[in-house]
Amino acid sequence: MKRCRGLVLAGAIAGLTSVTSMAVAMPADLASHRATYRMSLSASKSGSGMANANGSWTYQFIDACDGWVTEFRLMITYSYSEGGQVETATDFLGWESKDGLSYRFRVRQARDGQVTEEVEGTAKLNGVGKGGLARYTRPEVHSVKLPKGTLFPTAHTIRLIDTASRGGKILSRPLFDGQGDEGPFDTSAQIGRSTAQPAALASPLLESPVWPMRMAFFPTGSSDPLPEFEMSLTYHPNGVAEDIEQIFKTFSLRGKLESIEMLPHGKC
User: What is the pLDDT of residues 120-135, one digit of tens each?
Assistant: First the structure.
């Protein structure tokens, strides 16, 4: 199953602070919000066959007291230079405990309205900085070992923001988000200097400076020096992302923020 990465990788992204201590200190800084991005083709290499692509990406992140809930729907219509088009949809739902050690996920992929694959399961780490195990119930029952240092999406985002806030420039960690049944990715992030830039929309969620990021994703244990895909974006300290670009080997998609709203925290 080709993994179509979503803003769980707002989740994408080692620091000296443990995941446990950050989970205690920082959850209020991650804003519960709903955002919609307009997706379009930003680049296409010769021979890719890709003529155009457009769609939408609706992303929601909520502090649910006992954990964080991430949900998104990514819909893209691809048009090809030889004619014809394909409509794709990815639906994702994930829950992550605030200690960063437990995770549940469900992903559904569809093509032209027909479900092509469903992935569902749970994952648990044996402790902060330790490995663990992901157990899949769909598409078939099996388990995948998670290497030492693996992070789940929100813990990954917290670690990324913490690294950036301390002036760090590089972060390399395994990331498991359940978007595919192959297991985790090895990720490497390059973090730029914090800058103030005009906000895409008028919103208190977008009033802070941002860090430009570029992240590369490699299958675990791969010897290929080229990543399977990359992602660039700008991150606010509250976890809100702008200026998103997904960079695949033959084409790239850009996401422009169209709407954003703050959501209330769960009743604790």
Answer: 999 999 999 999 999 9
